[in-house]
């Protein structure tokens, strides 16, 4: 993969990146996550496992890596890998996020796995934690799951602090969630500080089941923002692991299209996102090197209008999609 301009941010990224949400903590909502970690949650073993997947990503050409304060020890695992492999800061682009605090205590069964808080004290604490671990590798710092009802985009103290971080050299972004992703993003596009846009990047969910943010993402990209797509595989629902009887007909449709393209379902689903002209980075959330290798095959798929039309019936209503996602089990 070739590192390309991350729109107008001044950073460079590869079309596929690696997200560490499923690698930095014992529990996550991806289908089959427990099997990926083999039920062994010893910290040193999980760190070694994460390093193995990161090695596979590096060998496959991935140069964008995504973490967050709430992803357990993801920042720590990424930082120790970067140091152990003597990777230069200019060779990679690293993004992280603030606004959620990990609260599961390294357990699968937890009352709450993460707590959302978009206040200024949390920003100040978490940027310090991220910088202590990632140092000069940190390029992009994002509000984690900004929504209109969280009020973060109306918090003048927080916005001013983010503007200060921007002026210090960080690209400031926001990640989105929920059926109103588009409305949140359109509001963020218009926020300015010091005569310039505050947000240089956005990370949003878009996949073959959830396309509601597409037009807003196009507008964000046209405004100069870098666009990162997360959950391109819908937390495993767009993979061979989805054995939900209610999804059987759609799975057959996906499998037939994937067979015709000569790839797996996951690679086909990722290719659909890579084909969007406004998508700068599409994240793989793989927690196994073998799954990452399958994901990378998406780069070989030639996406055609016929494929898009063939799979257009997969789209779910936004409320249904996010309700289903909210019901996925931590495992």
UniProtKB/TrEMBL annotation:
Membrane spanning stretches: none
UniProt KW keywords: Oxidoreductase
Enzyme Commission (EC) number: 1.1.1.107
Taxonomic superkingdom: Bacteria
An example Gene Ontology molecular-function term: pyridoxal 4-dehydrogenase activity
Domain NADP-dependent oxidoreductase: 46-306
Signal peptide bounds: none
Full protein name: Pyridoxal 4-dehydrogenase
Gene this protein is translated from: pld
């Amino acid at each position: 993969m070739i590192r390309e301009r991350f729109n107008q941010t001044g950073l460079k990224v590869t079309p596929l990146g690696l997200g560490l949400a499923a690698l930095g903590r014992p529990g996550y909502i991806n289908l089959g996550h427990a099997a990926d970690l083999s039920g062994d949650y010893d910290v040193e073993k999980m760190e070694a496992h994460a390093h193995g997947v990161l090695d596979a990503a590096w060998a496959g050409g991935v140069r964008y890596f995504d973490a967050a304060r709430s992803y357990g020890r993801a920042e720590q695992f990424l930082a120790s890998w970067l140091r152990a492999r003597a990777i230069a800061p200019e060779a990679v682009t690293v993004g992280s996020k603030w606004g959620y605090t990990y609260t599961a205590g390294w357990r699968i069964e937890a009352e709450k796995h993460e707590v959302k808080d978009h206040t200024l004290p949390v920003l100040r604490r978490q940027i310090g934690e991220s910088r202590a671990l990632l140092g000069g590798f940190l390029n992009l710092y994002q509000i984690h799951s900004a929504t209109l009802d969280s009020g973060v985009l109306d918090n003048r103290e927080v916005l001013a602090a983010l503007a200060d971080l921007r002026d210090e050299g960080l690209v400031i972004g926001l990640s989105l969630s929920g059926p109103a992703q588009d409305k949140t993003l359109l509001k963020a596009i218009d926020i300015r500080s010091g005569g310039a846009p505050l947000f240089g990047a956005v990370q949003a969910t878009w996949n073959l089941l959830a396309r509601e943010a597409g037009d807003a993402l196009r507008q964000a990209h046209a405004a100069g923002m870098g666009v990162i797509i997360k959950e391109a595989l819908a937390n495993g629902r767009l993979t061979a692991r989805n054995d939900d009887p209610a999804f059987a007909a759609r799975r057959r449709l996906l499998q037939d299209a994937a067979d015709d393209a000569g790839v797996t379902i996951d690679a086909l689903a990722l290719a659909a996102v890579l084909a969007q002209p406004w998508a700068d980075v599409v994240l793989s959330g793989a927690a196994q090197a073998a799954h990452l290798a399958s994901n990378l095959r998406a780069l070989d798929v030639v996406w055609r209008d016929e494929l898009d039309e063939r799979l257009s019936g997969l789209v779910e209503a936004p409320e249904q999609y996010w309700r289903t996602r909210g019901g996925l089990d931590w495992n």
